[in-house]
């Protein structure tokens, strides 16, 4: 099928994420992905600054990951997980338990489903332990946890992408957006200190609603699709303390932050805390297959008993096999040094954007680089600019940002930052 046929059929039948039909933003056909580059059907080659929505941390077409899928395919592509088990899923659960300190692993098939499972765990645990009246969650504004109904209910209810559904969703308790300033900014060496007034707000809000809270749910240290904000680990530490003081569970949504993206293996590691429930996904399979997991302490699992959830493709052998290979690869590679080098290159490369008209902020944490604009960006225009620099990015709202593969070389990070600076200049 040629490029024209692909795009015509796409326009006639495909509904893309966060898009109208037909899409008002150009769609580009990809023929191949290799290393950290995408080859379009028209022959153009682009450095992928998005890691395919933050998942392809090792890059594309990796021989170890390819082999894991091929080898598993010879045995079985899928088998139901109800009443049956298999080596790849069991091995993955053991690895995740060792990495997180959370003993029980429920394998799901997407990040949103992992969050749904976490929410159900929290409510079922409250009911099972004699606190059935605890029917609310506490979170912070500016967050994003997924696109299904339970997940949407704990996304930002006003400025998030799901405000159209606000009247249909359960009403939860929202703290203000955490103060920013964590991470690094070009030319700035001083780390922000936690805001005592904000800590006081958290304390008062949890105390006032503790009688109706089953859990607190947050994205640790980084608010992802809700705005790419970085907040001080002290707020996360205090939420852990408050959860303990008021006998409330703490859920950490590590779907975007897990597996090294922020410079630590998990976002919670910045604060030195362990949640009661954790959600992981995205980079779990290195961008190969859809897979997520919801992990809990043994205490939570024992309290719940039978968890009423069961995805058809739960524990899929192909997905769990490649996840095992991806985590082994992550353990072997010097990911911490790679992420530090990416962080330094992002700081250096984005410095030029700091004082540009139309730019509100430039910030970096680990392998995350953000140019926040004053006004919402024209996605099609920005993509034209960055593609003119042989880079693929997907801006949204007021954000021109990158979360590149850890496999990027310095010259490829330089290409990404030049494209971002050019995009900011085009404002």
TrEMBL record:
InterPro entries: Aminotrans_3 (IPR005814), Aminotrans_3_PPA_site (IPR049704), BioA (IPR005815), PyrdxlP-dep_Trfase (IPR015424), PyrdxlP-dep_Trfase_major (IPR015421), PyrdxlP-dep_Trfase_small (IPR015422). GO terms for biological process: biotin biosynthetic process. Its main location: cytoplasm. The record marks 18 as: Participates in the substrate recognition with KAPA and in a stacking interaction with the adenine ring of SAM. Pyridoxal 5'-phosphate binds at residues 111-112, 253, 311-312. It is found in: Cytoplasm. GO terms for molecular function: adenosylmethionine-8-amino-7-oxononanoate transaminase activity; pyridoxal phosphate binding. Coiled coil: none annotated. Substrate binds at residues 53, 144, 282, 310, 394. Keywords: Aminotransferase, Biotin biosynthesis, Cytoplasm, Pyridoxal phosphate, S-adenosyl-L-methionine, Transferase. Pfam families: Aminotran_3 (PF00202). GO terms for cellular component: cytoplasm. Its EC number is 2.6.1.62. Belongs to the class-III pyridoxal-phosphate-dependent aminotransferase family. BioA subfamily. Homodimer. Catalyzes the transfer of the alpha-amino group from S-adenosyl-L-methionine (SAM) to 7-keto-8-aminopelargonic acid (KAPA) to form 7,8-diaminopelargonic acid (DAPA). It is the only aminotransferase known to utilize SAM as an amino donor. HAMAP family: BioA. This is Adenosylmethionine-8-amino-7-oxononanoate aminotransferase. The gene is bioA.
């Amino acid at each position: 099928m040629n490029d024209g046929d692909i795009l015509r059929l796409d326009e006639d039948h495909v509904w893309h994420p966060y898009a109208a039909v037909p899409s008002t933003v150009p769609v580009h056909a990809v023929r191949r992905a290799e290393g950290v580059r995408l080859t379009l059907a028209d022959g153009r080659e682009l450095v992928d600054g998005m890691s395919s929505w933050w998942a392809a941390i090792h890059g594309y077409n990796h021989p170890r990951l390819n082999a894991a899928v091929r080898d598993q395919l010879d045995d079985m592509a899928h088998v139901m997980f109800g009443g049956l088990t298999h080596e790849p899923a069991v091995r993955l659960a053991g690895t995740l338990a060792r990495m997180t300190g959370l003993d029980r692993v429920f394998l799901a098939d997407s990040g949103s489903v992992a969050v749904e499972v976490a929410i159900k765990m929290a409510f079922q645990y409250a009911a099972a332990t004699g606190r059935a009246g605890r029917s609310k969650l506490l979170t912070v504004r500016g967050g994003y946890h997924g696109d299904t109904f339970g997940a949407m209910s704990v996304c930002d209810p006003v400025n998030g992408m799901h405000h159209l559904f606000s009247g249909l969703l359960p009403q939860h308790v929202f703290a203000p957006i955490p103060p920013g300033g964590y991470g690094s900014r070009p030319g700035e060496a001083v780390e922000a200190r936690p805001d005592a007034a904000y800590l006081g707000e958290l304390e008062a809000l949890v105390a006032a609603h503790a009688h109706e809270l089953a859990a607190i749910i947050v994205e640790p240290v980084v608010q992802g699709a809700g705005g790419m904000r970085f907040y001080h680990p002290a707020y996360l530490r205090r939420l852990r303390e408050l959860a303990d003081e008021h006998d409330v569970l703490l859920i950490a949504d590590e779907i975007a932050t897990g597996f090294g993206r922020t410079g630590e293996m998990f976002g919670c590691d910045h604060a030195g805390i362990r949640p009661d429930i954790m959600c992981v996904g995205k980079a779990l399979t290195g961008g190969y297959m859809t897979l997520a997991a919801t992990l809990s302490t043994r205490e939570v699992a024992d309290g719940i008993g039978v968890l009423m959830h069961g995805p058809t493709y739960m524990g899929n052998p192909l997905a769990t096999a490649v996840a095992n290979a991806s985590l082994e690869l992550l353990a072997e590679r010097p990911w911490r040094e790679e992420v530090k080098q990416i962080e330094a290159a992002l700081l250096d490369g984005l410095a030029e954007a700091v004082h540009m008209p139309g730019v509100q902020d430039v910030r970096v944490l680990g392998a995350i680089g953000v140019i926040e604009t004053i006004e919402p960006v024209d996605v099609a225009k920005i993509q034209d600019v960055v593609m003119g620099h042989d880079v693929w990015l997907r801006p949204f709202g007021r954000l021109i940002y990158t979360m590149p593969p850890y496999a990027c070389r310095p010259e490829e990070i330089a290409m990404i930052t030049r494209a971002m600076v050019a995009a900011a200049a085009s404002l």
